[in-house]
């Protein structure tokens, strides 16, 4: 297995575990019915905030916008005591150096998208160069996209080999593999793509780029969490999870935490193994934390639009 000394026997990716779509949808819906005690809600909101990859991936991004986002990452709300920072800033490769310098002295990671994000439509040589550039600029993490066209053509070995090559190019940087589940077409394919990514060396598997709808959903995320669980049982290797896109409200994020805890257990309940790919989510979490702290909501107008 790429990037790991453990010897792992590769499965036949054409024969992955079939997914019971009805069962998955029913289980995912049940997680939204769980209640969180008021005494635990503030702790859970802090956990969500600390799991966010604060992201800007737009053509109009500038150095100054990235610096402002980094400042927000380090100082989410100066009036709220004892709140954590976010987990990481996620930017294009050409902004990694700016983000790294701005975040100097903090524990916040710099993640960079790569591999012809978001389409993945380029040559392997260019994708490798993209990855190596991001790492050379200081990226702690790389978020790559799989070649969905090759996946749909049944060229699973191509997809596997490409992920393994990108993993090697990452060096010490952690690799998040974006499946772009909105383009995969079925939960069976989500399961297959998850297994390919993990066996190829992914440190995280991630739902979406945020550029395609639907992005993250609870049923899709549950399929990926169960794939992670089964992979861990087979190999002893822990892989992280990152739902991205479409999670903008604290209430929904808390449902995801319940699903994470009940599917993978306490060992995954930190930003080392679970992330939210979001920006607007941070503002809603801060509004909820302020409500829990002061008893009053703060207007959305007081928060930056990222």
Give a verbal description of the structure.
- This protein is an alpha/beta fold and 306 residues long.
- The chain has one domain (19-302): Alpha-Beta Barrel (TIM Barrel).
- 45% of the residues lie in helices and 10% in strands.
- It has an 8-stranded parallel sheet with strand order 7-6-5-4-3-2-1-8.
- The longest helix is centred in the C-terminal third of the chain and has 18 residues, at 218-235.
- The model has no long low-confidence stretch (mean pLDDT 93).
Q: What key phrases describe this protein's structure?
A:
single chain, 306 residues, alpha/beta, TIM Barrel, eight-stranded parallel sheet, 11 helices, 8 strands, 45% helix, 10% strand
Compact summary:
By secondary structure, the protein is of the alpha/beta class.
The count of domains is 1
- CATH topology title: TIM Barrel
Which second-level CATH architecture applies?
Answer: Alpha-Beta Barrel
Counting DSSP E segments of at least 2 residues, the number of strands comes to 8
Main sheet specs? 8 strands, parallel
Reading the helices and strands in chain order gives HHEHEHEHEHHEHEHEHEH
Distance between the termini: 38 Å
Apparent shape: globular
SSE-based structural type: alpha/beta
CATH class: Alpha Beta
Residue share in helices? 40-55%
The CATH superfamily name is Aldolase class I
Describe the protein's topology.
Elements: H1 21-31, H2 38-50, E1 52-55, H3 63-74, E2 88-91, H4 96-102, E3 109-113, H5 124-136, E4 141-145, H6 148-152, H7 156-170, E5 174-178, H8 187-200, E6 204-206, H9 218-235, E7 240-242, H10 250-264, E8 276-277, H11 280-294
Parallel strand pairs: 1-2, 1-8, 2-3, 3-4, 4-5, 5-6, 6-7
Helix pairs in contact: 1-9, 2-11, 5-7, 7-8, 8-9, 9-10
């Amino acid at each position: 297995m790429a990037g790991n000394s453990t010897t792992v026997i590769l499965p036949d990716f054409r024969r992955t575990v079939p997914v019971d779509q009805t069962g998955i949808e029913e289980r995912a819906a049940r997680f939204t019915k769980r209640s969180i005690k008021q005494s635990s809600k503030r702790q859970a909101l802090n956990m969500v905030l600390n799991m966010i990859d604060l992201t800007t991936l737009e053509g109009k991004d500038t150095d100054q916008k990235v610096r402002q986002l980094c400042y927000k990452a380090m100082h989410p709300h100066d009036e709220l005591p004892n709140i954590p920072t976010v987990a990481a800033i996620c930017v294009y490769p050409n902004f990694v150096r700016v983000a790294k310098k701005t975040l100097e002295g903090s524990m916040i990671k710099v993640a960079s998208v790569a591999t012809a994000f978001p389409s993945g439509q380029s040559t392997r040589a260019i994708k490798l160069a993209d990855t190596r550039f991001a790492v050379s600029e200081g990226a702690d993490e790389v978020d790559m996209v799989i070649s969905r066209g090759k996946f749909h053509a049944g060229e699973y070995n191509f997809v596997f080999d490409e992920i393994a090559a990108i993993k090697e190019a990452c060096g010490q940087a952690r690799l998040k593999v974006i499946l772009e589940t909105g383009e995969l077409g079925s939960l069976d394919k989500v399961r297959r793509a998850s297994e390919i990514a993990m066996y190829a060396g992914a440190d995280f598997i991630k739902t979406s780029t945020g550029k395609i709808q639907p992005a993250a959903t609870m049923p899709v995320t549950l399929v990926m969490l169960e794939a992670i669980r089964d992979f861990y049982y087979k190999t002893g290797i822990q892989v992280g999870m990152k739902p991205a896109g479409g999670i903008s409200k604290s209430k929904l994020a808390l449902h995801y935490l319940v699903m994470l805890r009940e599917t993978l257990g306490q060992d995954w309940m930190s930003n080392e193994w679970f992330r939210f790919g979001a920006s607007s989510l941070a503002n809603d979490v801060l509004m909820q934390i302020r409500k829990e702290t002061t008893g009053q909501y703060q207007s959305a107008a007081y928060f930056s639009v990222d």
